[in-house]
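Peptide/nickel transport system permease protein, pasting as requested.
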Amino acid sequence: MKFRANLMIGGGLVALATIVAVLAPWIALYDPVLDANLMNAEIPPGSEFIFGTDGQGRDIYSRIVHGAQISLTVGIVSQIANTIIGVTLGLTAGYWGGWWDDFVGLVTNLMLAIPSLIFALAIMAILGPGLSSLLIALGLTNWSYSCRIARAQVLSLKSQGYVQAARILGYGDLRIMFTQLLPNMLGPIIVIATLGMGAAILAEASLSFLGLGIRPPFPSWGSMLSEARDQITTAPWLSVFPGLAIFLTVLGLNLLGDGLRDILDPQSRERRA
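Structure tokens follow.
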């Protein structure tokens, strides 16, 4: 079935990227920063340098392998932060309602109206480039979808019998939210988090490409694309391989999220069928 194919292909690509990131110090052939030799500058892919070298004579393959660590770290950490913020706001807003629901809805609509990358650009302009600044910027700007999903789930679940029973037993609001409601809405949240990781990796690449993310000489796929833009006709391998790494990783996360959605939400699979 289609959802199984999405799950297998997406899971395989994500697993490959994860293995590469974890084993980067052992499978990289050269140091991605220190092993620079101008005598080897811009050598095309071959037996010695399988992905070629850049303008500083650094091995492209080794830089892409180490760049996987940065991309996956940004994707995972920033999406964890976004999920915690979004789920907490959506859970409390949907359960308590009233002025808090109105306030959260207003802020969420504001975040949805303006692209998250614009917010991230503003934060990076204030904090400056770097990995920690990047994690803060991306971890605070893409929580609105998780918030919307969490609120909608709470509105549909809080009238269920087990929630009413928990109230009768004397459970407090927070205990009901985090022990009764949250476990029953994990499916959609996991799907949104998986898709959000792909968006975070694309955002990191975009910010690094603009010079506001990971700064050279550290290997980031986005900064590698930025360095290669002037040699796209004379040395195309400089941009092809980092772009391919971004494409395959984000594709894998999107397919994985799509497959998880079909497994965790049978109604979605039936509608698409």
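Note for the archive: The radius of gyration is 22 Å.
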